[in-house]
Design a protein that fits this description.
The chain has 17 helices and four strands. Strand 1 and strand 2 form a beta hairpin.
Length: 488
């Protein structure tokens, strides 16, 4: 509220002109505002609004370039606490959700499932491995070459867990960082990610592995990952996994192009020197989740029981004679489109569309997956029910949201699938393919109807069946592009 220092006399039928000067950084304008006038004297107006501390006033009046870090921090804090801003509303929503979650947990009764014995059982060396010939007692202890347990840690599983993340040794951090590197680059800094022992392969970049492990396990600093660098090794992430993943994917090394020249390939065929961006096929779970996400079918609900997505007919009738996987019935509704993580799985009945893409059977612990390239994988991506349905739903969105012309619709879907605009030659090839499919389905309406009938979701009746079937074929091509099914 602005009050004139002295009352202003306004003659009858006069016009008051108020000029607002918007000098904010970046040319931003005030959003929603209202101008009002009053004939009341200043003493009668309520001027008891928010009181701004003198320190904040001084910080506001200071030139932005000359504000001290303390003033900037005070301004940020005052804004967050005293204005109705989006961040404050979101923080209130998070606090309310946590309070609700705590109330739910408070009603859940806990039951002990494991407890240490008052006196641990003896462990002895077995002479020649024979159980009936016990030898010397082996007490609980860590190898002498390693740091001891933390001072207050008990000499049991809990103490060992605390030792693993104590920060007094780099073993745990090195193993985890190396596996994350393998997740994003295809190969770990230590190639044998399942074995970092004495028989492991030597790291390709030992200094980088040590620095990342040190930063990962060091106490968390009040900084962003963009400020981290090998020259800033005193900063830490405090075991924050997401922060470490962000650090990796925002690095210049990860964001390199995957294009390779004959010269660099000759020097570094396996890309161990990281001369180019990594390029490899996505994992089994990611392939399915990505197809559902691109189409808009993915249900992002977290938690809950296992779900039964599409599977080949009678897939487990022979291998699960006595199990409950016999006569498998797929779910309906949202359960069909949950993340692949929630797919029902038994060690004797691994989903075939997952094993085709090298998903482990889960019969044994598998740290490092194999990575193959077979015709069955291409056939699954082209013909499996999930991918056909995803292509049809994406086709509907191409027609409804992509624009008025085939080229605009194809470009819209191409960008959604690959995160870039198509080149002119790519757009030309895809448009020609769409025209060819349209002509084909015009000659065979029955074939178009079969494609549109795949999956539980029904094709929208407002779309021309021939046109929708043709766009479904184009969407299927987009979902099978090499740069869509590979990380590059």
């Amino acid at each position: 509220m602005f009050v004139a220092a002295t009352p202003i006399t306004v003659p009858p039928n006069a016009t008051i002109t108020i000029t607002l000067s918007h000098d904010a950084s970046g040319g931003h304008n005030i959003g929603r505002f209202r101008l009002s006038t009053s004939s009341l004297p200043a003493a009668a107006l309520k001027l008891d609004g928010a009181k701004v501390p003198p320190a904040i006033v001084a910080a506001i009046n200071a030139e932005p370039a000359k504000r001290t870090p303390a003033q900037k921090a005070d301004l940020t804090k005052f804004f967050r606490e005293n204005t109705d801003n989006p961040l404050k509303r979101e923080e209130a929503a998070v606090a309310a959700a946590k309070k609700s979650l705590d109330a739910v947990y408070a009603e859940i009764e806990s039951t002990m499932v494991m407890e240490e014995l008052p006196k641990p059982k003896e462990a002895r060396i077995l002479k020649r491995g024979e159980y009936d010939k016990p030898g010397d007692v082996v007490p609980r202890a860590l190898p002498a070459v390693m740091p001891p347990l933390p001072k207050d840690a008990p000499n049991n599983r809990l103490g060992f867990a605390k030792w693993l993340v104590s920060g007094e040794h780099p073993l745990t951090a090195r193993v985890w960082v190396n596996r994350e590197w393998e997740r994003f680059f295809g190969t770990g800094l230590v190639k044998t990610s399942e074995n970092l022992g004495s028989q492991a392969e030597w790291p390709s970049h030992p200094e980088l592995l040590d620095w990342m492990a040190s930063v990962f396990q060091s106490p968390k600093a009040q900084t962003s990952t963009s400020q981290l660098s090998p020259l800033n090794s005193q900063l830490g992430l405090g075991w924050d996994m997401k922060a470490m993943q962000k650090l990796i994917v925002t690095s210049a090394t990860y964001r390199q192009s995957s294009r390779v020249t004959p010269e660099t390939f000759a020097k570094d065929p396996e890309n161990r020197l990281l001369a180019r961006g990594p390029r490899f096929r996505l994992g089994a779970e990611s392939l399915r989740d990505q197809a559902l996400a691109i189409s808009g079918l993915l249900v992002e609900k977290i938690g809950g029981p296992s779900v039964k997505p599409y599977m080949p007919a009678a897939v487990w009738d022979e291998t699960s004679v006595y199990g409950d996987m016999r006569n498998y019935k797929e779910d309906t509704g949202d359960s069909l489109y949950r993340r692949t993580l929630y797919t029902i799985w038994k060690r004797i009945a691994a989903p075939p569309t997952m094993t085709i893409f090298d998903s482990p059977s889960r019969e044994i612990c598998t740290v490092k997956r194999s990575r193959t390239n077979t015709p069955l994988q291409a056939l699954a991506l082209l013909n499996e029910k999930t991918y056909i349905e995803a292509a049809r739903v994406l086709a509907q969105r191409m027609i409804a949201e992509g624009g008025a012309t085939p080229e605009q619709r194809i470009a819209w879907a191409f960008r959604r699938a690959t995160c870039r605009e198509p080149r002119a030659d790519e757009l030309k090839v895809l448009a020609a393919g769409l025209a060819k499919r349209t002509a084909r389905f015009q000659q065979s309406a029955e074939e178009a109807a079969k494609i549109l009938a795949v999956g539980e979701t029904k094709a929208d009746a407002k779309f021309n069946p021939v046109e929708l079937a043709a766009y479904t074929g184009t969407a299927n091509v987009l979902l099978n592009l090499d740069e869509v099914v590979t990380r590059e």
